[in-house]
Amino acid sequence: MEKLFLDSVGEYKLSLAIFEAKEPRAVIQIVHGMQEHKERYYPFAEYLVENGYTVVVSDMRGHGEDAPILGHIADKKGEVLLIEDQRKIYQFIKERFKNLPVYLLGHSMGSIISRVLLQTNSKDYAKVILSGYVNPNPASGVAVGLGNIRKAFGKKKSSKMLASLALGPYTKAVKDRKTDLDWLSYNEENVKNYYADPLSGIPFTNGSFSALFHLLNKMGKAKKYVDVNENLPILLAGGEEDPCTGGEKGRAASKALLEKAGFKEISVITYKGMRHEILNEKDNALVYKDMLDFFNK
Q1: Of 83, 246, 248, 256, which one is least surrounded by beta carbons within 10 A?
Q2: 201 contact partners, CB below 8 Å, separation of at least 6
Q3: Which residues, 6+ apart, have CB-to-CB distance to 249 below 8 Å?
Q4: How far apart are CA 49 and CA 102, in angstroms?
Q5: Which residues fall within 8 angstroms of residue 203, CB to CB, at 6 or more apart?
């Protein structure tokens, strides 16, 4: 594994980890979720390398051991910067691995970023997996307004109200929960590791929540998708009991939105007995294989 820093907008240095296969079939660009970091994807990256894929995974702004301020994406326009970061990473991949196709895998907030990225750059990617994909939310416009108001009181401050708005429904979705993070997975060891991880669960600042809400709102607008690669294979992969996907209705809404945007090759895998972090459930070998099969097709 090689680690390097990539210059992005505003002199921000993106922390990248590169797992290089000997004779790669493609390069997989991974976008992680909120309040976590790239190292949590190393086991899956190593599995992909063993099966012939080079992987590039990065820490998004405000995340990971190299973040200037943990939990803070940007004072303003964080939603724009996060998309531009992924474009920079794609450009880096194409320059270094010139003739290889690029696949995209986004988890949770990374699935939101990925869909906004696809609104303008769907022809850059040969395949896409959206894991723990957050469903479109009709109330996202209200969240944008609340985020803007709280940001006016301090971009780097944290708001319990915004945190409750963003994550409260997920916590409450699990009845008889032992912790507030049981919605992450049935795998109790995974939840314990997340709690013990000093780089996970870092509270978002008002500036970060503002960026998240703007992205969620934009993601839900089919008209924002332009110059669509209609034959791009997209896999929606999620746990049946993942509150982020919005249940059966939410999963259907995510698929319908992409279809309305013009994508025609959408497949769905919903895992029984799994919640949000399907890559970290006890039966993750099944998820690993399904994702590999999708990449191999």
Answers
A1: 248
A2: 35, 181, 194, 195
A3: 135
A4: 14
A5: 35, 71, 158, 163
pLDDT for 38-80, tens place per residue?
999 999 999 999 999 999 999 999 999 999 999 999 999 999 9
The helix-helix angle for 140-152 and 206-219 (nearest 10°) equals 160
Residue 47: DSSP 8-state? H
CA end-to-end distance (rounded Å), the chain: 26
Residue with tokens 């970091």: 37
Closest CA to 54 of 81, 32, 73, 26: 26
Low-confidence ranges of the chain (pLDDT < 70): 139, 149-150, 152-153
For residues 19 and 55, the answer to whether their CB atoms sit within 8 Å is yes
User: What percentage of the chain has pLDDT greater than the value 90?
Assistant: 90
Q: Which uninterrupted H or E stretch holds 271?
A: strand 266-271
Count of the separate structural domains present in the chain: 1
Q: Which residues constitute the domain of residue 221? A: 2-296
CATH number for the domain spanning 22: value is 3.40.50.1820
What is each CA distance from 213 to 24, 93, 109, 170, 226, in whole angstroms?
36, 28, 10, 16, 21
The residue with tokens 């890559």 is 279
Residue 19 near residue 1 (C-beta atoms within 8 A): yes
pTM: 0.96
Q: How far apart are CA 169 and CA 150, in angstroms?
A: 20
Residue 272 DSSP SS3: coil
Distance CA 205, CA 262 (A): 35
Residue matched to tokens 């000997």? 22
Measure the CA–CA gap between 123 and 103, rounded to whole angstroms: 11
How far is Cα 179 from Cα 156, in angstroms, rounded to an integer? 27
What is the DSSP secondary structure assignment for residue 59, as one 8-state letter?
P
